[in-house]
Input
Amino acid sequence: MLLTDQIKMILKGTQEIINLQELEDKLKQKEKLIVKLGIDPTANSIHLGFAVVLRKFRLFQDLGHETYLVLGDFTALIGDPSGKSKTRPMLTKQEIEENLKTYFKQLAKIIDLNKTKIVYNSTWLNKLTPYEIISLTSRYTLAQMLEREDFKNRYLNREPISLHELMYPLFQAYDSVYLKADVELGGIDQKFNFLVTRYIQEKYNQEPEVAVMMPILEGLDGVNKMSKSLNNYVGIDEEPLTMFSKIMTIPDNLIYRYYELCTNLPTETIEKLKEINKNRNPRDVKLELAKEIVSIYHSEELANLAFEEFIKIYSKKDLPSDIPTHYIPPNIINEENKVNIIDLLYISGIVESKSEAKRLISQGGVYVISNDITKRIDLSNKFIQFTEPMIIKIGKFNYYKIEKK
Output
């Protein structure tokens, strides 16, 4: 493949490269670049926001480069302080191992695991002697570290900065030193860490890696970074209909940003779509976008079925075709044929605790559908009339059928 074509593909959807000339030089000099992507398994699921970087990793695989997925089982114990206003709680080894179990199945939806060299940074970081750690820290100054915006703000506001947080960028940099990385991928929020890495590599007499940084994908609220903790995410392992329905809720102004960062369509095709769709209803454009994204993580057939179900539920106001059934024992229904909704949600297994049931109800997210009437439940009236089958709706997308055992 021509160098210009490789560069064009790498640039698609990329926010910043430090620096492009170095990347071109490396591609001219080496047939296979060592490409690194670090993952700290601090959560147990992958969403479309993180998939943006993983998809770029897959591109480098398809271009024939040597790709390393660095699982930060060591650095996850610290937690990346990027953009944090306070010290993150340290994860236990057990929590990290649990998170890793769910990662691989999801990763396989995006990257080619057969072409991926999966390494754990504890392999080399655990072996560093006290002398080697001091040697590493001596190559960077506290003044340099305080140039980082979040550290600087915390320092000026006299808020705590733990010493182990200052070590995070240095350990991440040492990962690249150990692997002799040519390229590192990540989000634009990793820029400071990447600049530290380039500096440290030079201190170890290595050529600095090229940092390829992807934009941060806005979540379903259209404002904040996509995040599971903010509940504004689309998980890549979610059911096709749930994924489809969530994508349909994004603000209209993000349609083409999602096209660019979440689909395989070339830039030229996306530009043509902008022109073609200029006078169309944004809802119709979103339907096509949702189908495109769902087909990537499931299949074209399942994407089409999700489309049909979505139209049925949200346009024709019908119920989904396949609602999971949950059962309750008859003894929780009183003589007036009423049931406590909190008990129903918990005993049927829809929620994991009564406190979760109360939280969902207080947030206005629980509905009962009976005789084509949808009624929102509130805590002031916990006892509801039981009809069989009873349909419970949680939030916008989740339906459950309740029957007696």
Observations:
- The CA atoms of residues 52 and 232 lie 16 Å apart.
